Amino acid sequence: MILAKNNYKTLVRSVEWQAPIEKQKELLSMRVQVEEIKKKKESCHNRFEWKKKKPTDLNKVKQVNDKEYHWCPKHALWILHKPEECKLAEPKEETNRSNTGENKWRLANSG
To answer: What distances in angstroms separate CA 62 from CA 65, 71, 73, 75, 102, one per listed residue?
Structure first.
């Protein structure tokens, strides 16, 4: 019993008692890497948040990193092209909901 107690004290002093094994060390390392990746992803995502903020003056030009950005109403973002040069289709208006479901069936089968 004394031998076991001495062995335990030696392990505690040398920081080997309940020390993580190799697989646990590897898992801990992977967790740290995942957290770093998440932080990088968040910083990349937040980097362009300014592009979503609609200006009060829609004709305003914004300078960022020596580039001119214009507010595009079709994209609803700050974009490099001018609004009149936008090739994106006009945003679709919400359709009339009265022609959905059963009403469509009736219209198709009437006649």
So the answer is: 10, 9, 15, 16, 49
